[in-house]
Amino acid sequence: MTAFLLLAACLQVSAGGYSQKITLSVREAPLEKVFKEIERQSGYSFWYPSRHLDNASKVTLQLRDVPLEDVLQKCFEHQPFEYVIVERTVVIRPREAVVTAPIPTATIKGKVVTAGGKALSGVSVTVKATKKGTTTDENGEFTITVRKGDILVFSYIGYESQEMKVADQEVMNITLAESTAALNEVTVVPYGGRQNRRNLPTAVSTVRSEDLNAGAITDVGQLLQGKVPGLNITASGDPNKPAAVILRGASTLNASQTPYYVIDGVPGADISLIAPNDIVSIDILKDAAATAIYGNRAASGVIL
């Protein structure tokens, strides 16, 4: 009976302490000052190593007749520590760090082809809104490490870009459709004025000014570096000489490997006289049909 009465008395004291009403009116006050005022009004004491308050934020409170527990919750909001009440002592301890599980990554493999099933080499494969990416190899295949929820963007000159969201797949095969705008473009040809691109008897690759390489460009070869499949450009060690441009490789043993240039309809023009910033677009004729237009001088391809 005596033990029961003692337990009841302790519970009443504890309940009485928690139900005490606290009134505080402070603005940008140090936390230690607030603790002292709470101690004065409640009879509770605070225990903490002094270093715990080094990074404490100042508090602003306007409270009237508020229970002790609610006052403590307000004081410890956005603080780097938390509290626990042991009898009539408020013990302050560092807040446990919340560990966020990293988003798992996965390796995606795939292949990019045309509507006809032809592998596309050099397709840009990038993670949307990032600088992370890769390109397809000569077989149209690619490998990239991504996170679930990432969006992959597949883009290639002359084809419609395509976006695919990463889910649980490990293989992502993509078919790119030819750009309708590119097929309907009008190309100026010397043997028949203007022709629709889809009706041309030769393969034409077009690179527009916005797609050309940017930066400190000194010759046209640097503008086209990496922009056209099969176009090999080798920079010269001499700053006064332009880069070597090889479009189709050597056609004969002693023939020049340099493509034939046509500038604004003028055949055989000197490309080194053109300022890179003045170029609006560049058309490249790569197949053998180019010789039917310009003769043997176009055996190594034509750049218009």
Throw out a few tags for this protein.
Phage tail protein beta-alpha-beta fold; Immunoglobulin-like; Ferric Hydroxamate Uptake Protein, Chain A, domain 1; 3 domains; four-stranded antiparallel β-sheet; signal; TonB-dep_rcpt-like
Model description:
- With 304 residues, the protein is an alpha+beta fold.
- It folds into three domains: 14-94, Phage tail protein beta-alpha-beta fold (3-Layer(bab) Sandwich), CATH 3.55.50; 105-180, Carboxypeptidase-like, regulatory domain (Immunoglobulin-like); 185-303, Beta Complex (Ferric Hydroxamate Uptake Protein, Chain A, domain 1), CATH 2.170.130.
- 17% of the residues lie in helices and 33% in strands.
- It has six helices and 21 strands.
- The protein has helices spanning 2-18, 31-42, 68-75, 180-183, 220-224, 290-294, and strands spanning 21-29, 45-47, 59-67, 81-86, 89-94, 105-114, 124-127, 133-135, 141-147, 151-155, 162-165, 174-176, 186-189, 193-196, 204-208, 232-234, 244-246, 260-263, 266-267, 281-285, 302-303.
- The strands form seven sheets. A five-stranded mixed beta sheet has the order 15-20-21-18-19, with no helix packed on it. It has a four-stranded antiparallel beta sheet with strand order 8-7-10-11, with no helix packed on it.
